[in-house]
């Protein structure tokens, strides 16, 4: 009995201390016993939006020739996407850079790039449907986008998935509180307070280099399938003790 009382008091004091730091408007003291629980859970859904990363890397013997080759590739890629009726407002420029190669890079250039002194790079993202991701990538690569391939999988409206993760985490917290109370021979009452911290599960996908352009227009596009999107939420909850 003494052990049970100590555990119950400890739970009360911890709740009082933790909650006092979070919310000063609710008074929790020795006459207002409670159990504090933290729980994490996740929710999943198939992505309904794909973010396709496309780009190119080109070289030149001097600054002007590198820029000219970059301009040719840049406009070829943009024209190919436009010809395929990819909406302009779904295409966003990410980076463009023209710079001389450093000494280490010059020494380690492959034979095919001998005498090259400058490198130009440019990249974009294209937001599209999961079903069209492979098509967009195929168009860009065949137009000269030799530094392309990574795809981000997203939800157009992530709020529903975040809410589902928070609800699961709260239910998880309530189940934990009930088990704690059962061990203390007490009963969990109403929810006094809850806060959640949504967390996105990040799965980085490296950029995939496609060094050679497809030799013919008849080359089939890659087979690409959408991935699940996960959202995780951690809930901090305080329950009264009856």
TrEMBL record:
InterPro entries: 26kDa_periplasmic_antigen, SIMPL/DUF541
Signal peptide extent: 1-20
Coiled coil regions, renumbered to chain: none
Pfam families: SIMPL
Gene Ontology BP annotations: DNA damage response
Keywords: Signal
Family matches, as Gene3D superfamilies: Protein of unknown function (DUF541), domain 1, Protein of unknown function (DUF541), domain 2
PANTHER family named in the record: SLR1258 PROTEIN
Protein name (Swiss-Prot/TrEMBL): SIMPL domain-containing protein
């Amino acid at each position: 009995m003494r052990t049970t009382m100590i555990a119950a008091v400890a739970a009360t004091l911890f709740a009082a201390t933790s909650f006092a730091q979070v919310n000063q408007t609710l008074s929790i003291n020795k006459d207002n016993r409670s159990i504090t629980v933290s729980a994490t859970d996740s929710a999943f859904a198939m992505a309904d939006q794909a973010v396709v990363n496309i780009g190119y890397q080109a070289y030149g013997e001097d600054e002007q020739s590198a820029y000219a080759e970059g301009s040719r590739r840049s406009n070829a890629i943009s024209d190919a996407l436009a010809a395929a009726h990819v909406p302009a407002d779904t295409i966003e420029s990410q980076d463009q850079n023209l710079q001389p190669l450093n000494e280490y890079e010059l020494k380690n250039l492959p034979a095919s790039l001998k005498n090259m002194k400058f490198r130009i790079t440019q990249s974009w993202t294209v937001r599209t449907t999961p079903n069209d991701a492979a098509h967009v990538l195929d168009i860009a690569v065949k137009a000269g986008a030799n530094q392309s391939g990574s795809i981000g999988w997203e939800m157009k409206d992530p709020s529903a998935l975040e809410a589902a993760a928070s609800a699961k985490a709260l239910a998880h917290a309530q189940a934990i509180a009930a088990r704690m109370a059962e061990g203390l021979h007490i009963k969990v009452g109403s929810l006094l307070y809850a806060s959640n911290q949504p967390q996105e599960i990040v799965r980085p996908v490296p950029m995939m280099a496609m060094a050679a352009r497809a030799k013919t227009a008849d080359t089939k596009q890659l087979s690409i399938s959408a991935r699940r999107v996960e959202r995780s939420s951690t809930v901090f909850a305080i329950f009264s003790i009856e």
